[in-house]
Fold:
Amino acid sequence: MFKYQIVIPSYNRLENQAAAEYLNKLGFSKEEIVIFTQSAKDYKAYSKKFADIATIEYAEGSSVSENKNNALRAYRGKNIIMMSDAVKSVQRLEDGKLVDIDSKGEFDELVYECFKRAAKVDAKIWGVYPTNNAYFMSDKVEDKNLVIGCF
Structure:
């Protein structure tokens, strides 16, 4: 079974945790979803509100970049999905239309395929199309030197 950890860096966005809620709805356990905070105040508030659906972790930081770097350091050596806290769903292209991924199995399959393709070209990072605009999307996978957007 392919193992990976979902990490959601967040700061002062207690009311905007769509990603954790979406992943919970798909069937991910609280151990598989980590909300990474950068202040003691956030750690306390997030722990109170989201302890049932996510693991809350904390490392002192002063910027979004530092929070992401702290999360990367905490999970170094593991397969990590870093996801924006604002993600409401992940979609796939089907017959030219975007369709929500609505099961953990389908999400796992997408992630496994992405890690497998990255390993094939010795890539250390990969990304997905950052907006829900099917117009420019296709079924092909391309090797690029730059990844824009986060999952």
In short: The chain has a mean pLDDT of 88.
